Amino acid sequence: MIVKMTKYSILLLTGNKESALEKIQKIGLMDITRSAKPIDKTSEAMLEGIASSRRTMEVLSSIDLSREEDYNEIEKTARSLRKDTRDPRICLAEAQESLREMTERLDQADYEMEAARHWGEFSSKKLELLKDEGINLHFYTVPVKKFSADWTEHWPMSVISTDDDTVWFVVAGEFDDIPAEEVSKPERSYAELTKEVWNLQQGILVNKAKMEALKERREEVEKLYSDQIAELNLYLANASGESVAEDRICLLTGFAPTENDETVCEALDQMDLYYMKAPAEKEDNPPIKLRNNWFARNFETLTGMYGMPVYDEFDPTPILAPFFLLFWAFCLGDAGYGLILILLGLLLRNRINVLGLRKHWRLVVTLGVGSFFVGLILGTFFGINLAELEGTPQWLKSIMVAGKTEIGGAAYDTSMIAAIAVGVFHICLAMVIKAVGLTRRFGIKSAISAWGWVVLIVGGLLVAAGALTSVLDADATRIAVIVIGVISVLSIYIFNKPGRNPLVNIGAGLWDTYGMATGLLGDVLSYIRLYALGLAGGMLGGAFNNLAGMTLGPNPTWQWVFWLLIVLLGHALNFAMSCLGAFVHPLRLTFVEYFKNSGYEGKGTKFNPLKK
Q1: Would you list the DSSP string of 511-571?
Q2: What is the pLDDT of residues 183-204, one digit of tens each?
Q3: Mind listing the pLDDT tens digit for each residue in 89-142?
Q4: How far is it, in rounded angstroms, from Cα 166 to Cα 559?
Q5: So where are the chain's domains?
Q6: Element (H, E) at 31
Q7: Of 361, 325, 318, whose CA–CA distance to 589 is shortest?
């Protein structure tokens, strides 16, 4: 349900605005109208600081140096660096930049060292002195097969080093007839480069140690991040007040839950200001706060993903919750995977964060419980078909949605029929909710057409079900069809908008009929995805089981290792893919099929009180 809000119009002197907002922030119950984007350089700078804190938190969370070869040395060095009390954001940025620069220099030094390795030790200063005396040394390489020892008799040269493939030598003076490739003179000796490489490696280790030490300050950055957001909210609320009376009096607008009126008024009465309160109306566009029972509360996050309801709409969460759970369980379709979700939720509860889902552990457990029971009804447990398993209890087989169902002489999978039946019920419920919502918000005159479609479709389905099950005899069915037809025709084509030209109403009704005829069938068929995804997941799980079983042979011994490996990897992959499909497709059925047919707008703003 949507919590009722009270609107507060607050008048105060401009000079008292900041202190008043700080006191309101301490209450933590009022949503003050605030700017949606940076309004000046100050707020822009605040946002940049918040972004810096967030980036620091993300980097510190991702640092994992435990696999580094020199991790013990890194950890030892980090212990001596934990006394640094400077801003962790600055420390991390310096360490990252220094690490990047040193890594680039190390790559270059390694390249130069490899090139200088064969030229031995030399002094760059002495080479310059020789050059000043007119003795210019040239450096050459040549394959061993082409080198001849007689070269030393023709040119003033000296062999520096050789290996199985190449000879490195230097020649004093300028000669054009040396049959070898001249290479650039090394700028530094091998010893100099070795020393630089060692220094760079030590510098990289120190920077990694700095980052390792900063991991322990993540909570400090989180607190800073929270304080920065609170400070920005306070500033934006302060800057968004409308100034009147020659900029000497400020007018603020705030909203708080009506149930907290006494607390808010008591706090405002102690401040140097004047305020007026009144029940919030739709025209005020108050922020939305939802309140639901323990079950539906878990699914409020999904409602927020689409958009909060406006103030006079229905909260869709109580309807969304059970159907999303059912759709998820249908798509996952495996009782064993449900047990994995329950275990994952319990791990999240104990603060073992997986994929950032810690705060949603109740939702994960709820989805797991639903998946377990629906998976049993569908007859699948880790890809094993329970309906064909000899040890399955008879009472469980009796409640399974398995096998075939004959309709009109043709046999269809019972689970597919169940998926379509759920879809029909879901859409019919959406149409009823739309009619009730329009009646409540705009009056019965604006909902006549919606009620006409409810009577036609929902009433028609009920009459058809009654006739097929012999609840209604032929005469009662005929009368019901006539009554439904008359009411529907009048509501959809004649009185869909009272007071308008009847011909225009007929045209609008025909256009509405076209939309319904082309849309409803597609909407209903969309629910087949529930059956298809569950079937695909079960078949893929069974395929991995069969593949693993093929590795055992008649008398398995060491083959169990391959069996276990295939089962674990196969079901892990199938579980991940099934969970992805079980999340995306139920959302699609909810956001598109259900919300479209229920008339849900989702244009509200979430309640965001100014608080510490």
Answers
A1: HHHHHHHHHHHHHHHHTHHHHHHHHHHHHHHHHHHHHHHTTT-SS-STHHHHHHHHHHHHH
A2: 877 777 788 888 888 998 888 8
A3: 888 888 889 989 999 988 888 888 877 877 777 777 777 777 777 788 888 989
A4: 52
A5: 123-185, 294-402+528-598, 417-526
A6: strand 31-32
A7: 325
